[in-house]
Amino acid sequence: MTVAKEFEKSNQKYVDQFAKGDLALPPSRKVAVVICMDARIDPAKALGLEEGDAHVIRNAGGRATDALRSVIISQRLLGTREIVVIHHTDCGMLTFTDESLRKQLVSEADENVDHFAFLPFNDLEKSVVDDVKFFKKNSLVLDVPVSGYVYDVKTGAINKVI
Ligand SMILES: [Zn+2]
Predict the structure, then answer these.
(1) What is the pLDDT of residues 26-72, one digit of tens each?
(2) Mind giving me the DSSP string for 71-103?
(3) Which pLDDT score, from 0 to 100, does residue 135 have?
(4) C-alpha closest to that of 87 among 7, 159, 136, 10
(5) What does this protein do, in the record's words (predicted)?
């Protein structure tokens, strides 16, 4: 059985108790969270979010440049007025370089992806600061509060960096 099939089963249970069909499209707490896709992080549980509260924009590493398209839409079309960036300990982005992944893709897929930035990092706190600064400096992003945290996968705690 595929995982997708399992999802169909699980979703039926969710549907049976679902009572939030009347939520507004714009997030009620007017916040966009940019956070890594890491499977160990459940942003809703970790941050106290309910359906309708926030835009949670996930990608590998929780990188700002990758999230920019979504942040622009979130702010300009759906009214969010705060950004929270969350990277985390033991992130997969700490384990490779652009060069190593490019080499791997040449050998496995016979594709040259030298133009492609995978945005790995080797300094966790610096990557948070860099991404907060990216949003603060980008002229397409509104002048709103932007904060940055590191989520600890061992304790579940978010620790403020900037
Ligand atoms: Zn990660």
Answers:
(1) 999 999 999 999 999 999 999 999 999 999 999 999 999 999 999 99
(2) HHHHHHTT----EEEEEETT-GGGS--HHHHHH
(3) 98
(4) 159
(5) Reversible hydration of carbon dioxide.
CATH of the domain at 27: 3.40.1050.10
Which residue range(s) make up the domain with 142? 23-160
Structure tokens given for 97: 């370089």
Domain annotation covers residue 16: no
At 44 the pLDDT is 98
Asked whether residue 8 is domain-assigned, the answer is: no
1: CA distance to ligand 1 center in Å?
Answer: 28
* Per-residue tokens: 13: 């249970």
Ligand 1 (ion): residues with CB under 5 Å are 36, 38, 91
120 falls within a domain? yes
Residue 3 lies in a domain: no
143 is in an annotated binding site: no
